[in-house]
Specification:
Length: about 375
């Protein structure tokens, strides 16, 4: 056999092996590939609520949302990118697609399951959003699809290397002060209600862990009573700077319980690692000292009334008239509930590379690097 014949035989053999692998659907991934799976609420929703039967209060698929970066509304509650978008960029991943955008999720970059208005508890905005438990059921479907593509062992390895980013809980508490004050009437105390919310978060974390998840990123809850949409519920809030203290105290209790649970999980679950960003502290600092971080105002760019805190942005809700600022980058909030792209980027940087007292015990950069 000539040398040329040997080369041809070798090439044919290699092609046969590749074709065999493709036919089985078990494709190898780069050894250092780390995907990003995203769960939560409007802080992270990249457009899932575009595809469900809900109201415009839980959608941002209309102008002026998206005006700064995308130049069209994508379903993100901001003028541009959200925190997970920046995290994906830092991790050298593409923008992570919403789960409901496609029926077949074999993307090895990850999937975004977050839904604006979603809570930990299924009762929170029930029937209008994708609650955390349903988001987990979608993840289970994706896991099965990954097994078909990568094989059981390949999928398990893939999921163990992935990072799971979670922001949820604010809606379970804001609903008490806005739309459904009786939601926690079956609980003996505020502490018991918070413990129920945290208990359900813990259950979801454990179930992701059982599927192979080991690396988790958390955005704890911000100062809920001090955001524009809550401050408008306080008389003379603009002039005296008052916050809705009961709401703020509730999320402080939530954050304390979350920190305690994460420490317990770290000691109990082998290989469990997490990055917990103190969003409460970082957002409070920017509300109190906006100019220090490049913001002209700690109010909303788009909305109505005091601090533009009434959620009328876009004119698609009950109140049709609204005001819109010229430069969203000068404002901390885009609407009464949500941050501008510039603010999201600042928070993302803290989550990605912040010190342990800001994001700890690991930051997201370390989680992505840890294999």
């Amino acid at each position: 056999m000539t040398r040329l014949s040997l080369v041809i035989c070798f090439v044919v053999l290699c092609l046969s092996l590749v074709i065999s692998i493709i036919r089985r659907g078990h494709l190898p991934l780069p050894t250092k590939h780390v995907a990003l799976f995203i769960f939560g609420d409007s802080h992270f929703d990249a457009g899932n609520n575009n595809y469900i039967n809900t109201t415009t209060y839980y959608q941002a698929n209309f102008w002026p949302f998206g005006k700064t970066f995308f130049n069209y509304p994508t379903g993100r509650f901001s003028d541009g990118r959200l925190t997970p978008d920046f995290i994906a960029e830092y991790a050298k991943l593409p923008l992570i697609s919403p789960y409901l955008q496609s029926s077949n999720h074999q993307s090895t970059s990850g999937v975004n399951f977050a839904s604006a208005g979603a809570g930990v508890l299924s009762e929170t905005h029930q029937g209008l959003v994708i609650d955390l438990r349903t988001q987990l059921s979608y993840f289970n479907i994706v896991e099965k699809q990954l097994k078909q593509k990568l094989g059981d062992e390949g999928a398990k390895t893939f999921l163990s290397k992935a990072v799971y980013l979670i922001s949820v809980g604010s809606n379970d508490y804001s609903v008490i002060f806005t739309t459904n004050p009786s939601v926690h009437q079956f609980f003996n105390s505020r502490k018991e209600y918070v413990e129920t919310v945290i208990g359900n978060v813990t259950t979801i974390i454990r179930e992701i862990y059982k599927k192979g998840g080991r690396k988790f990123g958390f955005l704890n809850l911000g100062p809920l009573g001090c955001i524009p949409s809550m401050k408008v519920l306080v008389p003379d809030a603009e002039s005296i700077g008052s916050c809705l203290e009961e709401a703020t105290e509730t999320v402080k209790l939530h954050n304390k319980e979350l920190s305690k649970v994460l420490l317990e999980l770290e000691s109990e679950l082998q290989g469990f690692r997490y990055a917990n960003h103190d969003f409460y502290a970082s957002l409070t600092e920017r509300i109190n000292n906006p100019s220090k971080y490049g913001f002209k105002e700690a109010m909303a760019c788009c909305g109505t009334g005091s601090l533009r805190g009434i959620l009328s942005c876009g004119g698609k809700r009950a109140i049709k008239e609204y005001q819109l600022c010229d430069n969203p980058g000068e404002y901390l909030f885009f609407d009464g509930d949500h941050l501008t792209e510039r603010a999201n980027k600042q928070i993302s940087e803290l989550m990605w590379s912040g010190a342990p007292d800001v994001t700890g015990p690991y930051n997201l950069k370390k989680l992505f690097e840890h294999m």
